[in-house]
Amino acid sequence: MSFSTLGLSKPIQLALQKNNFIEPTPIQEKVIPLVLEGHDIMAMAQTGSGKSASFVLPTLELWSKSRGEGKAKIKVLVLTPTRELTKQVAEAFKIFGANLEQEPKVVSVIGGESIGDQLYEIQHGCDILVATSGRFLDVLSKKQMNLSHIEFFILDEADKMLNLGFAEELELVLDAIPKKRQNLLFSATYPQKMQDIASKITQNPIEVSVKETATVEAINQRVIEVNRENRGPLLRALLKDNKWGLVLVFMANKRATDNIAEKFRKYGFEAASFNGDLEQESRSETLLAFKEKKVNILFATDIASRGLDISDIDCVINYDLPRSPADYIHRIGRTARAGKSGVAISFIDYEDMEHFKLIEKRSDIELRRESVEGFALVGEAPKKTKGPAPVKGKGKSKKDKLREKKPIKHSR
Questions:
Q1: Rounded to an integer, what distance in angstroms lies between the CA atom of residue 175 and that of residue 164?
Q2: First CA to last CA distance, the chain
Q3: Rounded to two decimals, what is the model's pTM?
Q4: At what angle do helices 115-123 and 133-141 cross, to 10 degrees?
Q5: pLDDT tens string 135-178
Q6: Is residue 147 classed exposed, middle or buried when 0-12, 13-18 and 19+ CB atoms within 10 A define those classes?
Q7: Closest Cα to residue 319, out of 365, 246, 260?
Q8: Is 378 domain-assigned?
Q9: For the chain, N or C: smaller number of CB within 10 Å?
């Protein structure tokens, strides 16, 4: 099937051809016609499956037919969990809308940049507003933008926004936008909390689920048992033994990314750290250096697990396992993109074993444990200890407590 069969106009098809989009992915093939028909959507597909284009393309198509004359009005609101994903989605709207008769005015609103400049840009004409949820609420509190014309409300990577506390903020967003609108929800996972949120946004969505087995099958997933103190030396050995171009290494916290990147630079590697403490300008510069292969090893926190659309990442390393099993798929989905293959390696020790079993169960995978010569896991698994058993007779029984509450009858 080609994009020409999905009901998209010639200008959008031309933009697709120009950017080497030949055939729609399964999620695009299913979702685009439904959006064009005006349905609310709740779509689930793995990261790297083309979710963003599945809402960007039909939204542009519908927007181009209803824009109207005069100054641009905000008709599309897209909320995402990270700055990088926000910029990526905004860029997609610009790229695929470039050939439309009226090119859309797209504004991205993220933290780390001047809120005054962002408001100025919105007030001087905005058709499509793409924002991180937190910064959108900051702008909303200023009460200086008109949201009454919104026709499309889109949440991308909605489950991640839940982790950031978006559930509590949703009411503020929904109160600020028109009740009559088309709602599009996209995510790689839909836990119960996400389904509860969805019910507040839309009552009758069409649920679309695409199991992108090809995406996971293109990733060679490995698990290596190694003591924590040997993970750095093992990683250096793997980097020397393999001809990987770009390597993304996930760490547990911000400080760890900075510390290990500095160590690896001392060993002669072109390494950098990427975390939420970086100023926006530094984040953009670091990502650009990684894309252009001036830096080939990026040590990052989970902010890099979503929104990084870099097609040439050869290997993802889980130096530390993700806290949430759902984030495992998001992390490894940074490799094997755009039809390429990739490798994903997870380091585990005794303390990680139970957690990785849970990841396997939730991800519907079962991986063989490996050992690398010179870095084999040593020691013993810590014994599970139970807390002290309750002592009988120490506390008052329910009957005793009830007796104490009853009034005492005095004889006369």
A1: 20
A2: 97
A3: 0.73
A4: 70
A5: 999 999 999 999 999 999 999 988 777 766 777 788 899 999 99
A6: middle
A7: 260
A8: no
A9: C
